């Protein structure tokens, strides 16, 4: 019997004694008619409270309700959505609304429960949990390489080849092609084509329009199928961290907690909570 139920029963007994009539010769207590009536009502009330407690416990053990999640385009299409059937099978009573875009939205203003974001988190009012670090690859289509040749160095890419670059849909800032090897780093900022959405960069490469860098997790199916070719394998761009972020002091319902934990278990490495600064 739970502590709360024990206390409720004690309260009922104390009130019941107020309606009791002592029988001193027999040293017994007889319950009055009022006491009997009170007892019947009290038993029903306690039973109703127990039923309510059980219902809440069941809901806690079986998470349910609605979540609003904001997620970047490439992460949504290539990782999250293909994995959601697993989450839905385990938690069928949780509904999810996905906001899919590469813009950094105001979580509080948009009524979003959590967001999946890449790179350094600038908003210090948010709590962030790291999901994973993602590796970049430099690649191009076989058709492009057949027509233009495969570059042997980043300098060749800079001087002789067409480039495709990603730029932020929020700030307009470009993400340069970055090539690092040992102590040497080369950045390329000029391009013939650019896009403010990750899948757009992939499609520009698939169309044979140039060389670009993208996250391996998002282009791996195209590398496996031969539609893209990994080049300049001796050079790398520093990996890109991904975080799930949410407001500080957010009430963490069971549905919220299980979704956050599932994200980290499914896609990356468990990390500590971070608030204020996010350089993990």
TrEMBL record:
Any coiled-coil regions, as ranges: none
GO biological process: DNA-templated transcription
Domain LysR substrate-binding: residue ranges: 61-267
GO MF annotation, one: sequence-specific DNA binding
InterPro entries: LysR-type_TF_proteobact-type, LysR_subst-bd
Pfam families per the UniProt record, alphabetical: LysR_substrate
Family: Belongs to the LysR transcriptional regulatory family.
PANTHER family associated with the record: HTH-TYPE TRANSCRIPTIONAL REGULATOR, LYSR FAMILY TRANSCRIPTIONAL REGULATOR
UniProt-recorded name of the protein: LysR family transcriptional regulator
Organism of this sequence: Photorhabdus luminescens subsp. mexicana
